[in-house]
Amino acid sequence: MASADPILTLSDLEAWSRPGTALAVLGHPIKHSVSPAMHNAALAELAQTDPRFADWNYVRFDIHPDDLPRALELLHARRFHGVNLTVPHKIIAFDRVAAIDPAARPVGAVNTIRWTPAGWQGFNTDGYGLAAAVRETLGRTLAGTPIILLGAGGAARGAAVECLQQGCASLAIANRTQENLDTLLALLAPLAGGIPVRGFAPSAPPADLPAGALVINATSAGLRDTDPLPVALESLPRPAAVFDMIYNPPATALLQSASHLGLPNANGLAMLVHQGARALEIWTGIAAVRLAPAMGNAARAAMGR
Ligand code: NDP
After folding, report:
1. What is the atom index within ligand 1 of the atom nearest the CA of 129?
2. How many angstroms does the Cα of residue 44 sit away from the middle of ligand 1?
3. Domain that holds residue 32
4. Contact 178 CB / ligand 1 (< 6 Å)
Protein backbone atom coordinates (compact mmCIF):
# COMPACT_ATOMS: atom_id res chain seq x y z
CA MET A 1 0.00 0.00 0.00
CA ALA A 2 1.22 3.51 -0.81
CA SER A 3 0.59 4.67 2.76
CA ALA A 4 3.04 2.07 4.14
CA ASP A 5 5.91 3.55 2.09
CA PRO A 6 7.85 6.32 3.82
CA ILE A 7 7.86 9.73 2.16
CA LEU A 8 11.52 10.42 1.37
CA THR A 9 13.14 13.86 1.07
CA LEU A 10 16.13 15.52 -0.58
CA SER A 11 18.20 14.71 2.56
CA ASP A 12 17.44 10.99 2.09
CA LEU A 13 18.64 11.32 -1.48
CA GLU A 14 21.87 13.09 -0.41
CA ALA A 15 22.59 10.16 1.92
CA TRP A 16 21.33 7.43 -0.46
CA SER A 17 23.22 4.13 -0.12
CA ARG A 18 20.53 1.49 -0.60
CA PRO A 19 21.57 -1.52 -2.68
CA GLY A 20 19.54 -2.71 -5.66
CA THR A 21 17.93 -1.06 -8.67
CA ALA A 22 16.01 2.01 -7.60
CA LEU A 23 13.02 3.66 -9.26
CA ALA A 24 11.17 6.66 -7.83
CA VAL A 25 8.39 9.18 -8.22
CA LEU A 26 8.98 12.87 -7.43
CA GLY A 27 6.11 15.19 -6.60
CA HIS A 28 5.02 17.98 -4.31
CA PRO A 29 2.86 16.94 -2.57
CA ILE A 30 3.39 13.17 -3.00
CA LYS A 31 1.40 11.84 -0.03
CA HIS A 32 -1.56 10.58 -2.09
CA SER A 33 0.44 8.92 -4.87
CA VAL A 34 -0.53 5.32 -5.60
CA SER A 35 2.45 4.90 -7.93
CA PRO A 36 4.69 3.08 -5.38
CA ALA A 37 1.91 0.55 -4.72
CA MET A 38 1.32 -0.01 -8.46
CA HIS A 39 4.95 -0.33 -9.48
CA ASN A 40 6.06 -2.47 -6.54
CA ALA A 41 3.16 -4.86 -7.16
CA ALA A 42 4.22 -5.32 -10.79
CA LEU A 43 7.90 -5.68 -9.80
CA ALA A 44 7.03 -8.30 -7.16
CA GLU A 45 5.07 -10.27 -9.76
CA LEU A 46 7.93 -10.04 -12.27
CA ALA A 47 10.47 -11.14 -9.65
CA GLN A 48 8.54 -14.41 -9.11
CA THR A 49 9.61 -15.64 -12.54
CA ASP A 50 12.55 -13.39 -13.41
CA PRO A 51 15.36 -13.01 -10.83
CA ARG A 52 16.65 -9.88 -12.61
CA PHE A 53 13.90 -7.92 -10.89
CA ALA A 54 14.35 -9.32 -7.36
CA ASP A 55 16.26 -6.25 -6.13
CA TRP A 56 14.16 -3.57 -7.90
CA ASN A 57 12.26 -1.16 -5.69
CA TYR A 58 10.14 1.96 -6.32
CA VAL A 59 10.13 4.76 -3.72
CA ARG A 60 8.62 8.23 -3.46
CA PHE A 61 10.21 11.59 -2.76
CA ASP A 62 8.56 14.86 -1.79
CA ILE A 63 10.67 17.41 -3.68
CA HIS A 64 9.94 21.13 -3.79
CA PRO A 65 10.10 22.50 -7.37
CA ASP A 66 13.07 24.71 -6.39
CA ASP A 67 14.98 21.54 -5.49
CA LEU A 68 14.13 19.60 -8.66
CA PRO A 69 17.39 20.37 -10.55
CA ARG A 70 19.49 19.22 -7.57
CA ALA A 71 17.30 16.15 -7.08
CA LEU A 72 17.67 15.13 -10.73
CA GLU A 73 21.47 15.51 -10.50
CA LEU A 74 21.60 13.43 -7.34
CA LEU A 75 19.29 10.74 -8.74
CA HIS A 76 21.56 10.45 -11.76
CA ALA A 77 24.73 10.33 -9.65
CA ARG A 78 23.12 7.67 -7.40
CA ARG A 79 22.24 5.64 -10.52
CA PHE A 80 18.46 5.58 -10.11
CA HIS A 81 17.36 3.57 -13.14
CA GLY A 82 14.15 5.51 -13.76
CA VAL A 83 11.98 8.24 -12.28
CA ASN A 84 8.37 9.37 -12.66
CA LEU A 85 7.55 13.06 -12.36
CA THR A 86 4.19 14.30 -11.22
CA VAL A 87 2.66 17.67 -10.27
CA PRO A 88 4.35 20.20 -10.40
CA HIS A 89 7.52 18.81 -12.05
CA LYS A 90 6.53 17.62 -15.54
CA ILE A 91 7.22 20.86 -17.39
CA ILE A 92 10.28 21.91 -15.33
CA ALA A 93 11.91 18.54 -15.97
CA PHE A 94 11.42 18.86 -19.74
CA ASP A 95 14.28 21.38 -19.88
CA ARG A 96 16.52 19.29 -17.61
CA VAL A 97 16.85 16.10 -19.65
CA ALA A 98 19.71 15.29 -22.02
CA ALA A 99 17.49 13.68 -24.67
CA ILE A 100 13.75 13.64 -25.43
CA ASP A 101 11.63 10.93 -26.97
CA PRO A 102 10.28 12.47 -30.22
CA ALA A 103 6.66 11.76 -29.19
CA ALA A 104 7.11 13.81 -25.97
CA ARG A 105 8.65 16.85 -27.67
CA PRO A 106 5.41 18.57 -28.79
CA VAL A 107 3.89 18.01 -25.32
CA GLY A 108 6.66 20.05 -23.67
CA ALA A 109 6.46 17.94 -20.53
CA VAL A 110 7.94 14.63 -19.33
CA ASN A 111 6.46 12.26 -16.75
CA THR A 112 9.05 9.48 -17.12
CA ILE A 113 12.84 9.63 -17.34
CA ARG A 114 15.39 6.85 -17.85
CA TRP A 115 19.04 6.83 -16.79
CA THR A 116 21.64 6.90 -19.58
CA PRO A 117 25.38 7.56 -19.18
CA ALA A 118 24.93 10.91 -20.99
CA GLY A 119 22.10 12.06 -18.70
CA TRP A 120 18.35 11.54 -18.39
CA GLN A 121 16.24 10.52 -21.37
CA GLY A 122 12.70 11.96 -21.16
CA PHE A 123 9.36 10.42 -22.17
CA ASN A 124 5.71 11.27 -21.71
CA THR A 125 3.43 8.26 -21.16
CA ASP A 126 0.23 10.19 -20.29
CA GLY A 127 -1.00 10.14 -23.90
CA TYR A 128 -0.48 6.38 -24.12
CA GLY A 129 -2.31 6.05 -20.79
CA LEU A 130 -5.26 8.08 -22.04
CA ALA A 131 -5.62 6.14 -25.30
CA ALA A 132 -5.29 2.76 -23.53
CA ALA A 133 -7.79 3.78 -20.83
CA VAL A 134 -10.38 5.04 -23.33
CA ARG A 135 -10.06 1.75 -25.22
CA GLU A 136 -10.29 -0.37 -22.07
CA THR A 137 -13.05 1.47 -20.21
CA LEU A 138 -15.21 2.80 -23.05
CA GLY A 139 -14.27 0.48 -25.92
CA ARG A 140 -13.37 3.47 -28.10
CA THR A 141 -10.35 4.68 -30.05
CA LEU A 142 -9.18 8.27 -30.33
CA ALA A 143 -8.51 7.63 -34.03
CA GLY A 144 -11.45 8.69 -36.18
CA THR A 145 -13.43 10.06 -33.20
CA PRO A 146 -14.59 13.67 -32.77
CA ILE A 147 -13.12 14.88 -29.47
CA ILE A 148 -14.40 17.59 -27.14
CA LEU A 149 -11.57 18.32 -24.72
CA LEU A 150 -12.13 20.31 -21.53
CA GLY A 151 -9.10 22.19 -20.18
CA ALA A 152 -5.90 23.81 -21.42
CA GLY A 153 -3.38 22.91 -18.71
CA GLY A 154 -0.61 20.31 -18.79
CA ALA A 155 -2.87 17.27 -18.95
CA ALA A 156 -5.02 18.80 -21.70
CA ARG A 157 -1.90 19.57 -23.71
CA GLY A 158 -0.79 15.93 -23.55
CA ALA A 159 -4.29 14.73 -24.40
CA ALA A 160 -4.63 17.11 -27.36
CA VAL A 161 -1.28 16.06 -28.84
CA GLU A 162 -2.21 12.37 -28.43
CA CYS A 163 -5.62 12.91 -30.08
CA LEU A 164 -3.96 14.62 -33.07
CA GLN A 165 -1.15 12.05 -33.30
CA GLN A 166 -3.74 9.24 -33.25
CA GLY A 167 -5.78 10.93 -36.01
CA CYS A 168 -8.97 12.03 -34.25
CA ALA A 169 -11.76 13.23 -36.57
CA SER A 170 -11.84 16.73 -35.03
CA LEU A 171 -10.78 18.46 -31.83
CA ALA A 172 -12.80 21.14 -30.03
CA ILE A 173 -11.28 22.51 -26.82
CA ALA A 174 -13.10 24.43 -24.08
CA ASN A 175 -11.36 26.29 -21.29
CA ARG A 176 -12.38 28.74 -18.57
CA THR A 177 -9.53 31.18 -19.27
CA GLN A 178 -9.44 32.33 -22.90
CA GLU A 179 -5.76 33.30 -22.79
CA ASN A 180 -4.70 29.76 -21.79
CA LEU A 181 -6.95 28.33 -24.49
CA ASP A 182 -5.35 30.59 -27.11
CA THR A 183 -1.86 29.50 -26.01
CA LEU A 184 -2.82 25.83 -26.41
CA LEU A 185 -4.46 26.40 -29.82
CA ALA A 186 -1.32 28.17 -31.06
CA LEU A 187 0.85 25.29 -29.88
CA LEU A 188 -1.39 22.73 -31.62
CA ALA A 189 -1.69 24.58 -34.94
CA PRO A 190 1.49 23.10 -36.48
CA LEU A 191 0.52 19.57 -35.36
CA ALA A 192 -3.04 19.51 -36.68
CA GLY A 193 -2.36 18.45 -40.28
CA GLY A 194 -5.79 18.38 -41.87
CA ILE A 195 -7.66 17.80 -38.59
CA PRO A 196 -10.06 20.63 -37.69
CA VAL A 197 -9.10 22.18 -34.33
CA ARG A 198 -11.14 24.92 -32.65
CA GLY A 199 -11.66 26.52 -29.26
CA PHE A 200 -14.83 27.56 -27.46
CA ALA A 201 -16.00 29.00 -24.15
CA PRO A 202 -17.44 26.27 -21.88
CA SER A 203 -20.37 28.56 -21.02
CA ALA A 204 -21.35 28.97 -24.70
CA PRO A 205 -20.70 25.84 -26.79
CA PRO A 206 -21.22 26.51 -30.52
CA ALA A 207 -24.31 24.85 -31.99
CA ASP A 208 -22.30 23.19 -34.77
CA LEU A 209 -20.14 21.00 -32.51
CA PRO A 210 -20.31 17.38 -33.71
CA ALA A 211 -22.74 14.94 -32.10
CA GLY A 212 -21.31 11.58 -31.05
CA ALA A 213 -18.11 13.11 -29.64
CA LEU A 214 -15.93 11.70 -26.89
CA VAL A 215 -15.85 14.31 -24.12
CA ILE A 216 -12.56 14.25 -22.16
CA ASN A 217 -12.27 16.24 -18.95
CA ALA A 218 -8.67 17.36 -18.44
CA THR A 219 -9.52 20.20 -16.05
CA SER A 220 -9.10 19.90 -12.31
CA ALA A 221 -12.74 20.97 -11.85
CA GLY A 222 -14.29 18.05 -9.98
CA LEU A 223 -11.45 17.37 -7.55
CA ARG A 224 -13.47 19.21 -4.86
CA ASP A 225 -17.20 18.77 -4.46
CA THR A 226 -17.64 22.56 -4.46
CA ASP A 227 -16.15 22.84 -7.98
CA PRO A 228 -18.36 23.93 -10.88
CA LEU A 229 -18.98 21.53 -13.76
CA PRO A 230 -16.33 22.04 -16.47
CA VAL A 231 -19.19 22.05 -18.99
CA ALA A 232 -22.92 21.31 -18.92
CA LEU A 233 -23.25 18.10 -20.96
CA GLU A 234 -26.83 19.07 -21.88
CA SER A 235 -25.46 22.12 -23.68
CA LEU A 236 -23.51 19.91 -26.14
CA PRO A 237 -24.90 17.90 -29.06
CA ARG A 238 -25.42 14.44 -27.52
CA PRO A 239 -21.93 12.97 -26.91
CA ALA A 240 -21.08 9.30 -27.39
CA ALA A 241 -19.19 8.98 -24.08
CA VAL A 242 -17.46 10.92 -21.31
CA PHE A 243 -13.98 10.28 -19.88
CA ASP A 244 -12.84 12.18 -16.79
CA MET A 245 -9.08 12.15 -16.01
CA ILE A 246 -9.92 12.67 -12.32
CA TYR A 247 -10.03 9.38 -10.37
CA ASN A 248 -10.41 10.71 -6.83
CA PRO A 249 -13.32 11.24 -6.25
CA PRO A 250 -14.25 8.25 -8.45
CA ALA A 251 -17.53 9.80 -9.65
CA THR A 252 -17.21 13.53 -10.27
CA ALA A 253 -20.30 15.68 -10.84
CA LEU A 254 -19.50 15.49 -14.57
CA LEU A 255 -19.57 11.67 -14.52
CA GLN A 256 -22.74 11.68 -12.41
CA SER A 257 -24.33 13.96 -14.99
CA ALA A 258 -23.17 11.61 -17.79
CA SER A 259 -24.75 8.64 -15.97
CA HIS A 260 -27.95 10.62 -15.48
CA LEU A 261 -28.07 11.29 -19.23
CA GLY A 262 -27.41 7.61 -19.99
CA LEU A 263 -23.96 8.26 -21.47
CA PRO A 264 -21.17 5.66 -21.11
CA ASN A 265 -18.50 7.16 -18.84
CA ALA A 266 -15.27 6.34 -17.01
CA ASN A 267 -12.92 7.96 -14.53
CA GLY A 268 -9.12 8.37 -14.82
CA LEU A 269 -7.93 5.41 -12.76
CA ALA A 270 -7.25 3.26 -15.82
CA MET A 271 -5.27 6.15 -17.34
CA LEU A 272 -3.11 6.29 -14.22
CA VAL A 273 -2.52 2.55 -14.45
CA HIS A 274 -1.64 2.51 -18.16
CA GLN A 275 0.70 5.53 -18.03
CA GLY A 276 2.47 3.73 -15.17
CA ALA A 277 2.63 0.43 -17.06
CA ARG A 278 4.15 2.17 -20.09
CA ALA A 279 6.76 3.84 -17.83
CA LEU A 280 7.66 0.46 -16.33
CA GLU A 281 7.92 -0.97 -19.85
CA ILE A 282 10.43 1.78 -20.71
CA TRP A 283 12.54 0.86 -17.67
CA THR A 284 12.23 -2.97 -17.75
CA GLY A 285 11.68 -3.83 -21.41
CA ILE A 286 8.60 -5.88 -20.36
CA ALA A 287 5.44 -5.08 -22.37
CA ALA A 288 3.06 -2.63 -20.66
CA VAL A 289 0.04 -4.86 -21.39
CA ARG A 290 1.67 -7.62 -19.35
CA LEU A 291 2.37 -5.27 -16.42
CA ALA A 292 -0.98 -3.45 -16.33
CA PRO A 293 -3.20 -6.11 -14.61
CA ALA A 294 -1.06 -6.28 -11.44
CA MET A 295 -0.75 -2.49 -11.43
CA GLY A 296 -4.52 -2.07 -11.82
CA ASN A 297 -5.24 -4.43 -8.91
CA ALA A 298 -2.74 -2.56 -6.71
CA ALA A 299 -4.11 0.86 -7.70
CA ARG A 300 -7.69 -0.21 -6.89
CA ALA A 301 -6.55 -1.66 -3.54
CA ALA A 302 -4.59 1.52 -2.72
CA MET A 303 -7.69 3.58 -3.54
CA GLY A 304 -9.71 1.37 -1.19
CA ARG A 305 -11.75 -0.24 -3.97
P1 NDP B 1 -3.20 22.23 -14.63
O2 NDP B 1 -3.15 22.98 -13.35
O3 NDP B 1 -2.05 22.30 -15.58
O4 NDP B 1 -4.52 22.69 -15.46
C5 NDP B 1 -5.75 22.84 -14.81
C6 NDP B 1 -6.87 23.01 -15.83
O7 NDP B 1 -8.11 22.96 -15.12
C8 NDP B 1 -6.85 24.35 -16.56
O9 NDP B 1 -7.38 24.18 -17.84
C10 NDP B 1 -7.79 25.21 -15.70
O11 NDP B 1 -8.41 26.25 -16.40
C12 NDP B 1 -8.84 24.18 -15.35
N13 NDP B 1 -9.57 24.50 -14.12
C14 NDP B 1 -9.08 24.51 -12.86
N15 NDP B 1 -10.06 24.82 -12.00
C16 NDP B 1 -11.19 25.02 -12.72
C17 NDP B 1 -12.53 25.35 -12.39
N18 NDP B 1 -12.90 25.57 -11.12
N19 NDP B 1 -13.44 25.46 -13.39
C20 NDP B 1 -13.09 25.23 -14.67
N21 NDP B 1 -11.81 24.92 -15.05
C22 NDP B 1 -10.89 24.81 -14.08
O23 NDP B 1 -3.51 20.72 -14.20
P24 NDP B 1 -3.20 19.39 -15.04
O25 NDP B 1 -3.51 19.69 -16.45
O26 NDP B 1 -1.87 18.85 -14.69
O27 NDP B 1 -4.27 18.35 -14.43
C28 NDP B 1 -5.66 18.47 -14.72
C29 NDP B 1 -6.41 17.28 -14.13
O30 NDP B 1 -6.06 16.07 -14.77
C31 NDP B 1 -6.14 17.08 -12.64
O32 NDP B 1 -7.36 16.80 -12.02
C33 NDP B 1 -5.23 15.87 -12.62
O34 NDP B 1 -5.38 15.15 -11.41
C35 NDP B 1 -5.75 15.08 -13.80
N36 NDP B 1 -4.74 14.15 -14.36
C37 NDP B 1 -4.99 12.81 -14.30
C38 NDP B 1 -4.09 11.90 -14.84
C39 NDP B 1 -4.37 10.45 -14.77
O40 NDP B 1 -3.46 9.62 -15.00
N41 NDP B 1 -5.60 10.04 -14.52
C42 NDP B 1 -2.81 12.34 -15.46
C43 NDP B 1 -2.66 13.78 -15.47
C44 NDP B 1 -3.59 14.64 -14.92
P45 NDP B 1 -7.79 27.76 -16.45
O46 NDP B 1 -6.86 27.79 -17.65
O47 NDP B 1 -9.00 28.58 -16.62
O48 NDP B 1 -7.09 27.97 -15.15
Report:
1. 40
2. 33
3. 7-124+270-302
4. no
- Could you report the per-residue pLDDT of 118-166, keeping only the tens digit for each? 999 999 999 999 999 999 999 999 999 999 999 999 899 999 999 999 9
User: What are the residue numbers of the active site?
Assistant: 90
pTM of the full structure: 0.95
Based on the structure, what is the number of domains in the chain?
Answer: 2
Shared-domain flag, residues 260 and 285: no
* Domain-embedded: residue 2: no
Domain containing residue 213: CATH number: 3.40.50.720
218 Cα to the center of ligand 1, angstroms:
5
Task: Supply φ then ψ for residue 237, to 5 degrees.
Answer: -55, 145
H-run or E-run covering 299: helix 288-302
Residue type, 189: A
Of the pLDDT bands very low, low, confident and very high (cuts 50, 70, 90), residue 4 is low
Q: Is the dihedral of CA 185, 188, 190, 196 positive or negative?
A: negative
- Asked if pLDDT for residue 243 goes beyond 80, the answer is yes
**Does the Cβ of 40 fall within 6 Å of ligand 1?**
no
Is residue 1 in some structural domain?
A: no
